[in-house]
Design goal:
The complex is a heterotetramer, with two copies of chain A and two copies of chain C.
Chain A: H1 23-47, H2 63-71, E1 78-81, H3 86-91, H4 96-103, E2 127-130, H5 137-150, E3 157-162, H6 169-181, E4 185-191, E5 194-195, E6 198-199, H7 209-215, E7 219-224, H8 228-243, E8 249-254, H9 275-282, H10 286-296, H11 302-324
Parallel strand pairs in A: 1-2, 1-3, 3-4, 4-8, 7-8
Antiparallel strand pairs in A: 5-6
Helix pairs in contact in A: 1-2, 1-10, 1-11, 2-8, 4-11, 5-6
Chain C: H1 2-11, E1 25-27, H2 28-42, E2 46-50, H3 66-70, E3 75-76, H4 82-94, E4 98-103, H5 113-120, H6 123-126, E5 136-141, H7 156-159, E6 166-168, H8 173-185, E7 190-195, E8 202-204, E9 218-221, E10 226-230, H9 232-245, E11 252-256, E12 259-261, H10 265-275, E13 278-285, H11 290-301, E14 311-315, H12 324-330, H13 334-346
Parallel strand pairs in C: 2-3, 2-4, 4-5, 5-7, 6-7, 10-11, 10-13, 13-14
Antiparallel strand pairs in C: 1-8, 6-12, 9-11
Classes of the chains: A alpha/beta, C alpha/beta.
Bound molecules: thiamine diphosphate (2 copies) and magnesium ion (MG) (2 copies).
Amino acid sequence: MIRYAYSGKGFEPFEPAIGKYDREFLVSLLWSMMRIRMVQEEMERRYREDEMKTPIHLVIGQEATSVGCCAALERKDQVFSGHRTNGNYLAKGGDLKAMMSELYCRANGCVASRGGSMHLLDKEAGYAGSSGIVAGSLPIATGAALAARMLKQDWATMVFFGDAATEEGTLWESLNYAALRELPVIYVCENNFFSVCSPLEARQPKVEIYEKAASFGLHSVQVDGTNVLEVYETARSAVERARSGKGPTFIESLAYRWRGHGGAGDDSDTGYRDPAEVEHWKQYCPIEGFYNFLAKRGQIDEPGRNALVKQIQNEVLKAFEHAISSPVPEESDLFKHVYSD
Amino acid sequence: MIRYAYSGKGFEPFEPAIGKYDREFLVSLLWSMMRIRMVQEEMERRYREDEMKTPIHLVIGQEATSVGCCAALERKDQVFSGHRTNGNYLAKGGDLKAMMSELYCRANGCVASRGGSMHLLDKEAGYAGSSGIVAGSLPIATGAALAARMLKQDWATMVFFGDAATEEGTLWESLNYAALRELPVIYVCENNFFSVCSPLEARQPKVEIYEKAASFGLHSVQVDGTNVLEVYETARSAVERARSGKGPTFIESLAYRWRGHGGAGDDSDTGYRDPAEVEHWKQYCPIEGFYNFLAKRGQIDEPGRNALVKQIQNEVLKAFEHAISSPVPEESDLFKHVYSD
Amino acid sequence: MPWAQALIAKKTDSLSHQDPNTGRVLSYAQAINEALVLAMELDPKVFVLGQGVDDPKGMFGATLGLAEKFGGERVFDTPLSEDGMTGICAGAAMMGLRPVYFHNRPDFLLLAFNQLVNHASKVHFMDNGKTNVPMVVWAAIGRGWGSGAQHSQAVHGLLLGVPGLKIVLPSSPYDAKGLMLSAIADNNPVLIFEHRWCMRRKSAVPEGFYTVPLGKGVYRRRGTDLTIVGVSHTLELALEAVDELARDGISADAIDLRTIKPLDEEIIFESLKKTGKILILDSTWAMGGLCAEIGCRVAEKGFRDLKAPVRRIGLPDIPTPAGFTLEQYYYPDKKRIASAIGEIAAA
Amino acid sequence: MPWAQALIAKKTDSLSHQDPNTGRVLSYAQAINEALVLAMELDPKVFVLGQGVDDPKGMFGATLGLAEKFGGERVFDTPLSEDGMTGICAGAAMMGLRPVYFHNRPDFLLLAFNQLVNHASKVHFMDNGKTNVPMVVWAAIGRGWGSGAQHSQAVHGLLLGVPGLKIVLPSSPYDAKGLMLSAIADNNPVLIFEHRWCMRRKSAVPEGFYTVPLGKGVYRRRGTDLTIVGVSHTLELALEAVDELARDGISADAIDLRTIKPLDEEIIFESLKKTGKILILDSTWAMGGLCAEIGCRVAEKGFRDLKAPVRRIGLPDIPTPAGFTLEQYYYPDKKRIASAIGEIAAA
Ligand SMILES: Cc1ncc(C[n+]2csc(CCOP(=O)(O)OP(=O)(O)O)c2C)c(N)n1
Ligand SMILES: Cc1ncc(C[n+]2csc(CCOP(=O)(O)OP(=O)(O)O)c2C)c(N)n1
Ligand SMILES: [Mg+2]
Ligand SMILES: [Mg+2]
């Protein structure tokens, strides 16, 4: 049974406007999604070796949200995540090697093996952090936006979270405050219809999440989370709103998680969702769909794609090698940074 | 400056239908509001004696919400409140003497001087309790409604709270759950536009509270909280919905608090609100307005009202005497009921 | 009180079973599962909820099959609203139901402190005894595999000082079952914290009803050189350590408190009177929680018996690091515990 | 660190001021107010928020006039969203601001434990030191006038075990000002709990900048028979008791810890070495919090100096009753403290 079906409109609506994007930009979106996918796939392969001793939460199938949203941001803009960090981190320009080292619990991990996969950080890239507590980043990101306002700086804050985060009261407290103060913050709900194995219908009545956000006074939009251009356009206008003092935006992006909640592989066979539902969504692969769209419009061809694959493969392997060959922390490291001076 | 003006339609809309209510019922509504008012006024007078050593939160000006809502309930239905308990407690049939004893910290107070004015209880009357923590009763009441469902009983649960409670995340968690499970619960938001001295505009963007509740999947209505009939009609259909398994209702009732947040007297002169705003609302006194409406329709006259006043005065004085002459708790009482056997 | 007395008494032969070493062997999860089945069969007012209680993993297996057996009205998933759902449990309990609310991690209970501390624990007192709040909240302490600072905390130390709560930390399948039944039977909010590493254990578990009383510790070893007192996984490590130290001629009373609130101080003082020395263990921060409380009580009421400084071993005053190397320095291990035991015995 | 070193150092003559008995006398609220004004003048990144900070009551007077002086962008009211606003403060602090968040009651902080314990306290550690969270959370412990179980709690005992937090309990206007300035200067989340009954005090408060260091206790009395250690209002009562007991020839070291995390154990052991006896006081539950921690440390590290059982006085393991008669049995008073002191001295 397909409980949650694809409801988007595909790439057609974007065909007339393709000329307005430059090719390099379009290819960079494709590249960024492919890169996230390939990093995840490599993680998945290696995860079975039990050397990456940290929980992982893959975003395979959901890449377009990270990539479309972060493409609308500049380096100065700040991104926060929940537990499903990888796509957000990489799309925002987070250092891949530092991430892999973190996943391998190395001393040169992006937070020196203190955070693990649910807590990445890359300050230089404007990736400001994440929380393993569902919705925990919501008020923090809202506070970052308040800081931008008070410091009179024009960077925007964007925070990613899942559908289940909208069940946490703190999310609504955050939205209320952002709307009240018209803060430069963009809330991105990656609605994949599940929280671990719990379907949305077990957790929320049949109402639209983005409409709830709208009723709280936010500009609020639902987008096709398999369509990187739709995500990008929505994020871009949200960023414009933020920079021009027009207040917060809520983006609900619908895309399906192809893999299990955590760890490697799909777990649909355990029965909480129909494998047919996964297959259904694979027809709307954000990467294949976009590639086909671009190819049809002459923006890329098979050799072009192969070159991207090669380049990424190379980078990914290097990152894994870097991580695996890096040293682990020492006992004395444990006692550092409990307090700041 | 009048920041929050009366926006109701008065009693006119109810004129055509007056015949459908029986006179006794109409007078009982008036009586109940007068009784709450007179209890409060006597409390206010005596509060200055410093013998009632507990915070008080008067509902003068807001009586119609308690009375209209509770008139739609039966004894078996359960009511919960926040800190502003008195109107809810009395309207639901809570024992006045036990309440006054509680306010005077006596051993025979409704919770034996352990709760104080923010924590009343009268199980026999179906007044199930209250919380001094804003919004604290919301999930508890929702859980009571879940119990009714699971126990297959047909009582409804009603919970009263202020506008500020809608800023607490736990309220939205409760609403989500009630809507998901279609629970027999009625949420009554007594919106008096202030939280202590903070106006609504300092706490929420310009959106309607009841519309937020609607977006969460609840049947949701805004009513004139100075009009006991409008409140009653709305509550009655909410109770019907609850009893017939149609799920929760959210009622936002607009009425102004004539006195300061806590303690005796108005505090508008301190500057947080314009005394003219208080005067404005006094024109829409829920009791005067209803009396005039009833008198014009021949349902009551001046001698009739005087008789009510007399009767209530008598009852109120007796309750105060009862309280004042009652014994205080003993040291050994302190150690009781930390745990239940 | 129907449950505590009437119902259980009818079914239970005795409250004094001791963790037997023979008989049917169950895993930890099976033991909890069996307790839940028994309780739910006994009383239609018992229900089970929590994120994932009806999913294929069934809360580490503890709730597997319950939804099939008792239906979705009594075994159900929840939204991710820990504070709200805790209040909902409290409200349902106040109306006579007996919710058992499951969490993957105690860290998530920090979202629910308002309902736990400001409400559930106080209602009975504030209501002058007129309302009971018979609810059970269960959570499994995470450790290892990069759980890190937000997924590995044990919060029982933070809650120890809160009047009105009961707090249970079972360490064996036998106790997990018997304490779960006692917790459900209790008319107060009871928090049960399992440790994921204890949950790997199997042990003999009698069939049918039995309860392990709340507030009663138990000797796991008998000896003379010192008293070891603690709970959960860290105590398990200490038992291993003490068994190894037997070859050095060291022996100890080892007490598993099982419940930390109410706290069985009699058993501690009984042992201390004999040994004069004490090592206190906990699976959470050593500061300000159970270790501190016991240490202080010993200094108050056991002072005359005390022949050497009190020692405690818990976690240092540091958040949990994610990586396995840092973890290994963070958590006390058998070696560290053994050397403390050796030092105390020699003192 | 700009604030802690550069800015303050420039303005402060010394960190070693002792509560002077001469000079300009201020009320408690005025002292805090002055600290806030100084901090806000010094650094535009400091801001003040909380339900009612800009209202006519001005948070017991502590924030009166600030909105007028610094404008609504730096001094502002908040929605009733304690967890959300705490996270908002943490987020703002992570971006370099210095929020000072005011609450009427610590009870309301229980709504914010997720942000305090799971987030603000851990960010610096989890970020490997890359992010600071310089925020101050302030709350006034309620007592009396029927505050009851949900409006009178002191929650510092619950938070004592949480790594990464600092916790301050001033007892005089002098300290309230100096500790507030230190707290704002600190690069970590600092919680300040005032006691409403301490807030009735007036004392000499120097003008201009000075700081009272976090983590340093101070002797309030010097004596030989025992060590009294504690914080806040209960310590005040003990000082009165000890002054009266002078007529019986009893004298005591009385230590006001002022900060309970980090905890100044040196000053406790210094005194204990001399007196050999100790009475520990707190204004919250005696169980599992500060009293327990100090009692345990004494039994660990001060055992050789200890000549009599440790004693502690805090609140019993009971929620706060609302009525004034029950309250009077609930809270420790001068008499009860005096008799404990007498007993210890005689022991
Ligand atoms: C407060 C809290 N409760 C429970 C969890 C356990 N948990 C971790 S991830 C997750 C699923 C969240 O679902 P969603 O927000 O939709 O994000 P998704 O995993 O689907 O991306 C849960 C329940 C948690 N981390 N934090
Ligand atoms: C969680 C919490 N925060 C703050 C308070 C302090 N407080 C008590 S009543 C009140 C005002 C609440 O306003 P509202 O909900 O609108 O109710 P009203 O007093 O207007 O009836 C506040 C802030 C509290 N009791 N609980
Ligand atoms: Mg999801
Ligand atoms: Mg209000």
